[in-house]
Specification:
By secondary structure, the chain is mainly alpha-helical. The chain is built from 13 helices and three strands. A hairpin with a 3-residue loop joins strand 2 and strand 3. Helix 4 packs antiparallel against helix 5.
């Protein structure tokens, strides 16, 4: 009896503890995000007839819900999620489809939300749902995803939620992220990289061709809203009063910040020049108020967050845990890269948020849930 107890204690000591460094980084980003949302949104809120702290309190409520969900999920054995793989897939599709019903909400001209008492963006649910589903799917079909036929079948299944997000909510950025998350998860799981490299090369070639077509006016950009965005990206100064306005104002904001910035709360571009500065373009306000130093500090925090997720994925005790965290790491990496690239005009405007910093309740809640899943996997890593 005593021997059994000693063996159990020794076994428990070998179990990994929750990644506290990851928790600290996330909490710092969340608090920093709340500060920047208030700074960026107060003027716009007052002009819109709301209280100055309207967006702050709205984001704070979502953050509290998200942190509670993160703590709960982190305490649950992540293997339980495998039982909910197919439900996660179908629930994601159903929620996206419900946007077409009277439950759908239109905000700022985009119909991407559901009114379920609280506003919910189905695309954010779908990102988490697809990470869970395809982690389980790949584990159950590991040999299949190593061959071209199996890869194509899997990509067809992956295309359904991505195409629904694009077709129903017209949210191209979220559709790309969903597809890319699944693609990278499959690439990581398969020992054969050649088919994935070929497919990636084809997709990059198509994207380059589209840019070339628009840049050389082979197809009039007026025929497509998306092509118009590419034209505005290539020549924003020619569309300073229309499609290029937001991008140019963000660039002015970044440039005026200098090395150390104007000081927290001292941005002038948020005073009606950068439209809804608390959303996609909040990184430009960070650059203006905190300068290059503040911007680099934020980027470093995200690099540290992604590094910790990489370490958890690498040391996960099984393939399911590794794929879960790989999907989460890919999601964060893509959103950070795309947001900063858009704000600095490296890529066309796609309307993607900066994790934990941009205003958006649904995004914050489900990103924190993803962190909770990663923490659950980290708790299962045995030490020694």
């Amino acid at each position: 009896m005593a021997t059994s107890r000693r063996h159990r204690v020794k076994k428990e000591k070998k179990r990994g503890s929750m990644d506290r460094s990851l928790v600290f980084i996330v909490l710092f980003l969340v608090v920093f995000g709340l500060i920047m949302i208030y700074s960026a949104s107060a003027y716009y809120a007052v002009r819109s007839g709301k209280k100055a702290n309207y967006y702050l309190w709205s984001q704070l409520r979502a953050t509290i819900i998200g942190l509670a969900a993160m703590i709960f999920v982190s305490r649950v054995d992540y293997h339980v999620l495998r039982k909910f793989a197919w439900p996660a897939y179908f629930v994601s599709l159903i929620l996206i489809a419900l946007v077409l019903t009277p439950l759908g909400m239109t905000v700022n001209g985009a119909r991407r939300w559901l009114n379920l008492g609280l506003s919910l963006q189905p695309a954010e649910v779908a990102k988490v749902g697809m990470i869970i589903f395809f982690s389980a799917y790949v584990c159950g079909n590991l040999k299949r995803v190593q061959h071209l036929k199996g890869i194509i079948k899997t990509m067809v299944i992956a295309s359904v939620p991505a195409l629904m997000v694009y077709g129903i909510t017209e949210n191209l950025s979220s559709a790309i992220i969903i597809f890319a998350i699944i693609y990278i998860m499959l690439f990581v799981a398969s020992p054969k990289s050649a088919p994935y490299v070929i497919i990636a090369g084809i997709l990059i070639g198509i994207a380059a061709l589209v840019v070339y077509v628009v840049a050389h006016n082979i197809i009039p950009y007026e025929l497509s809203y998306r092509l118009g965005r590419i034209e505005a990206w290539l020549h924003p100064e020619q569309y300073a009063s229309s499609r290029g306005f937001q991008t140019l104002q963000a660039l002015y904001s970044i440039g005026s910040g200098g090395v150390l910035g104007k000081g927290l709360g001292q941005s002038t571009q948020k005073l009606g020049f950068v439209p809804e500065a608390q959303n996609d373009m909040i990184f430009s306000i960070i650059c203006e108020e905190l300068g290059m130093f503040g911007a680099l500090a934020v980027i470093l925090l995200f690099v540290m967050l992604i590094y910790h997720l990489l370490m958890i994925a690498t040391n996960a005790p099984d393939l399911f845990g590794s794929l879960l965290v790989t999907g989460i790491m890919t999601h964060f990496s893509l959103q950070v890269l795309l947001n900063i690239a858009v704000v600095t005009n490296v890529l066309p405007n796609t309307g993607i948020t900066l994790p934990f910093i941009s205003y958006g309740g649904s995004s914050s809640v489900f990103l924190l849930i993803e962190i909770g899943i990663a923490l659950s996997v980290s708790r299962s890593i045995r030490m020694g």
